[in-house]
Specification:
heterodimer; A: mainly alpha; two-stranded antiparallel ribbon; globular; B: mainly alpha; 78% helix
């Protein structure tokens, strides 16, 4: 199949939303989201089919179109298993996000348009094999987030929106300087932005040594790399429900994927040079995020801080540079994307009914809204790594992979990471228990359970979590060849 | 004769419009609406003629040079004037002296055409004067506003000063090289102090016209005081023309000094971006805000100019095309708001979306493009300027420029946020007239398509 459909579908959906009357906006958005999901599923099946018939070429469905050829850009698209996994994650979160926002009334046309624009940016980002095109799609996904928070957000939204936009743009500025530096440091005849060509010809260590940190930290800002994580709690808690789902579910994954694809894969020597620093920062993020979560009273802040901790696992896996650990990092991206989107969706539903997000003002909600609270349990258990759910698979793989390197430093980092699971269990069980159990709090009186669109939104995300948690082998088979390519690159082959 | 007409077709067309306007004025005169439609139609023809059928050649003993790139640049300038005539049509219809306004504006445009075509210092100087004195007269056209007269006064004083400085530079060059012809000067400019001095004087005049810091002090007052169409003309057309001329002259006349002027351009660029951005943050008047934002944009243009190669020329031309669309979208909305609702301050933009979604979107897209946010064309424009600048390998400078993009994002987004915030009280919706919708529509289409359609950039590249 032609991958351009994956960006074409959201683009056409967005166009239809703009042209149609406002009352049809949500229907078109849902139709478009389902279409994208069908396309992604089609992509997955044709991808696995190609692999089954023995196509071992790392990139499938590759196409190259002219785009600013005189400047060395080209619209070079293609997917490996990692990209397919990320696009499936995007499709799940987009459908769930549209469904959760079904009752959106304020400026709904714009709301669904921006939602679709974000999906457009994410799909394009995951499939691009050209650094500049990748950067373009990354930037496309920044400003809708700002508008989400500042128009439809709540709380201290001006501050949060500015903080988010400026920090993310700061991250992209680092990436841009890195990319341009990389391009112009190469000898004129081999200058290109094409990642496949760059990986083939190789980049000198002198260049890697200063470009790698720029690109890695730039993408790291997106995925809450300590100490650039401060936009996460404010941004997530002020965003509207669908906005938080996108931010944590997809947007933070753009950073993780970029760290893997643009930094580690292209500049393996740089990655080896800085791996220890990455591991230290990731460990700090994991443990700091976990302890900071314990102190939070607001459900959204709880999930936001725990996202910092969980995304730390992604960076830890990448920093370990072994095959199992990097596979774990990819697993963690998918798992965290689904789980955190589910959690934010549920927090939105609970808030809509109880008009509070403070844990202490809730209680006994399981009696009045069994469906929503059951889903919340599932999200919580996934977050603390209960076997059978996706979180366990992902974190376990990261730990096994990190344990493979046998020296004190790596093992200490692994132990610190593993310890955070205990802290996670404490805050998740405390929060969920308080919300669900005990006598019914005043805020929970007279509320009803989930409506049909909310149910579907939850069901789709839980289906993803279960599919990954109960049968992780299909995901492993999907991403494994892609990870092999990166690991081979790291091994210098 | 045919050669003259063919190479100077844009100039001839503008001259024709000027004469038509003068004859109409001599006769009975026309109603403003009719006159405006006539002018718009003629300008549209000029746009078509300027973009098409370009050839390379010289006339007037080599003083006047025309080639495909210059033809395209002239096209950008007329296109900008055409868009101004559409988006500011409210003001044009209300003014008492419509014919005079256009005669002056088109005379300035004619001067700009000759400026970018000039291949001789004398010609260059004369056309620079022709392009600035009518604008000063135009700045005074809000006859019963004192600020308008103040703006005209500041404008004429500064223009005179800049011209004087440039004339001094020119006379030094003439004394040193014994020629006024670009081609003959080129080989004779050396890296000696006296040549440097001539260059610095010459460059200072450009800096005045482009409002590069520290020569920017007139900008905000003039933008605020002058009528909105004139401000739009100054910030889009005038800036574009001087930029084209500057890139041309730096490459043609001062190529031998390129090592020295690189340092100068980088230093001025950094200062200009910083000052423009930091001051733009604190403005509460829309026009002053746009003035400082345009100063910051000039700093960005200098990033591209510092590249000193063919790509710098292409990137600057491309950026100016994008800048015309983005800036005129913002000015167009400001003009409508001023004439229809008397809105001058940024806080009054609050709830604009509730009053007119179209204006809100046009303004936001314009500002997004100015800020360099994709998929708006401004993103590509800035990216290519950065690429041109980065080819020198000075990544600290590029880093400073990208940081400035982030600073500018802060104040552009502040305005966008206000536009989409719900208003405090119920407000009447704004009516937008058809020419304005058409003009803003051109800008919006330009902002969306100039970027993602790479054909336009490739076309400019092929012209060089």
């Amino acid at each position: 199949m032609n991958l351009l459909w994956m960006v074409g579908a959201p683009l056409l959906t967005g166009l239809a939303i703009v042209l149609a009357p406002a009352r049809y906006a949500r229907l078109i958005a849902l139709g478009g989201a389902i279409l994208q999901m069908a396309l992604v599923m089609g992509l997955y099946f044709s991808f696995t089919h190609e692999r089954e018939v023995g196509n071992v070429f790392p990139l499938l469905f590759e196409k190259q179109y002219q785009w600013f050829p005189s400047l060395g850009f080209s619209l070079h698209i293609g997917v490996d298993g990692i990209a397919v996994a990320m696009m499936m994650l995007t499709a799940f979160v987009v459908v769930a996000g549209v469904l959760v926002s079904w009752r959106m009334e304020h400026m709904k046309k714009e709301f669904f348009f921006f939602l679709t624009l974000l999906a457009f940016g994410a799909y394009g980002f995951f499939m691009s094999m050209d650094l500049m095109v990748m950067f373009f799609f990354l930037e496309v996904a920044v400003i809708p987030k700002y508008l989400f928070i500042s128009i439809w957000g709540s709380g201290n939204k001006t501050y949060s929106a500015n903080k988010l936009a400026l920090m993310l743009m700061g991250g992209s500025a680092l990436i841009l300087v890195g990319i341009l530096g990389l391009y112009f440091s190469l000898p004129p005849e081999s200058r290109t932005f094409d990642m496949a060509k760059l990986a083939e010809t190789g980049i000198g260590f002198e260049i890697q040594r200063w470009v790698f940190p720029l690109v890695f930290v730039g993408f790291g800002v997106f995925t809450a790399l300590f100490p650039f994580h401060t936009w996460v709690p404010d941004g997530h808690s002020s965003a509207p429900t669908a906005g938080s789902m996108f931010l944590a579910g997809i947007s933070m994954k753009l950073g993780g994927y970029g760290c893997l694809r643009a930094a580690t894969y292209l500049m393996p020597e740089g990655a080896r040079e800085y791996a220890n620093i990455i591991i230290v920062l990731a460990s700090i993020a994991i443990i700091y995020g976990a302890f900071a979560t314990m102190m939070q009273k607001d459900l959204k802040y709880i999930n936001a801080y725990s996202s910092i901790s969980h995304c730390g696992f992604v960076l830890l896996g990448i920093g370990m540079l072994t095959k199992t650990a990097i596979t774990g990092a990819v697993f963690q991206m998918v798992s965290h994307g689904l789980m955190t989107a589910l959690f934010f969706a549920i927090i939105g539903m609970v808030y809509e009914r109880t008009h509070t997000r403070l844990v202490e003002q809730m209680g006994g909600l399981l009696k009045v809204m069994p469906f929503i609270i059951t889903a919340m349990f599932i999200a919580g258990f996934c977050s603390l790594g209960l076997p059978g759910l996706s979180g366990f698979v992902a974190e376990m793989t990261v730990f096994v992979g990190s344990w493979e390197t046998q020296d004190v430093f790596h093992r200490t980092a692994t132990v610190i990471g593993a310890m955070s699971i205990v802290v996670t269990a404490v805050y998740i069980l405390r929060a969920v228990g308080q919300v669900a159990m005990g006598p019914l709090a005043a805020s929970g009186e007279g509320v009803e359970d989930a409506r049909w669109y909310e149910r579907w939104s939850v069901i789709i995300l839980i289906a993803g979590i279960l599919a990954m948690g109960l049968a992780p082998f299909w995901l492993y088979e999907l991403v494994s060849p892609g990870v092999d390519v990166i690991v081979n690159q790291l091994a210098g082959e | 004769m045919f050669e003259y007409l063919h190479l100077m077709k844009s100039e001839a067309m503008v001259l024709l419009i000027i004469f038509i306007l003068l004859f109409i004025k001599l006769g009975k005169g026309l109603h403003n609406d009719t006159l405006l439609s006539v002018v718009q139609l003629l300008l549209l023809c000029t746009v078509v003629i300027s973009f098409g059928f370009n050839d390379t050649g010289r006339v007037f003993n080599g003083m006047f040079l025309h080639n495909t790139l210059i033809g395209f640049q002239k096209g950008i300038l007329v296109l900008a004037v055409y868009i101004i005539s559409l988006v500011c049509s409210n003001w044009f219809r209300q003014t008492e002296h419509l014919a005079e306004v256009f005669v002056l504006m088109l005379s300035a445009l004619l001067g700009m055409f000759l400026l970018i075509s000039a291949d001789n210092l004398l010609m260059f100087y004369l056309s620079l004067e022709l392009s600035s004195i009518p604008v000063a007269a135009l700045a005074n056209f809000d006859l019963n506003r004192r600020k308008s007269s103040e703006a005209a006064m500041k404008m004429i004083m500064n223009s005179a000063l800049a011209s004087g400085i440039m004339l001094f530079g020119i006379s030094l060059i003439y004394g040193l090289t014994g020629s006024l012809d670009f081609a003959q000067i080129w080989g004779q400019v050396k890296t000696e102090p006296i040549h440097m001095m001539a260059f610095v004087f010459f460059f200072a005049a450009f800096a005045f016209k482009l409002s590069v810091v520290p020569f920017h002090l007139w900008t905000a007052d003039v933008y605020e005081g002058a009528p909105v169409p004139v401000t739009a003309f100054l910030s889009a057309v005038s800036k574009a023309a001087v930029t084209f001329a500057m890139v041309n002259v730096l490459a043609k006349v001062f190529a031998n000094l390129s090592g020295s002027w690189y340092v100068l351009v980088v230093a001025l660029s950094v200062v200009t971006m910083l000052v423009g951005n930091l001051f733009a943050m604190r403005q509460d008047n829309i026009l002053r805000f746009l003035a400082f934002s345009s100063i910051a944009q000039v700093g960005f243009i200098l990033v591209g100019v510092s590249g000193q190669n063919e790509q710098a020329t292409v990137a600057t031309t491309y950026f100016m095309l994008v800048y015309v669309f983005s800036n005129l979208a913002a000015f167009g909305v400001a003009a409508v708001l001023l004439s229809e609702a008397g809105i001058t301050r940024i806080e009054q933009l609050k709830g604009l979306y509730a009053r007119s979604p179209f204006l809100a979107w046009a303004l936001s897209l314009g500002l997004f493009s100015l800020a360099g946010v994709p998929p708006a064309a401004g993103f590509f424009g800035k990216m290519f300027l950065l690429m041109a600048g980065a080819s020198k390998g000075n990544y600290i400078f590029i880093g400073i420029a990208t940081l400035n993009m982030i600073i500018s994002l802060y104040y552009y987004l502040r305005v966008v946020r206000l536009v989409f915030t719900s208003p405090d009280k119920d407000v009447a919706s704004l009516q937008v007239s058809r020419p304005v919708i058409f003009g803003l529509g051109i800008c919006i289409a330009g902002i969306i398509f100039t970027g993602v359609v790479s054909w336009i950039y490739d076309h400019i590249q092929s012209l060089v």
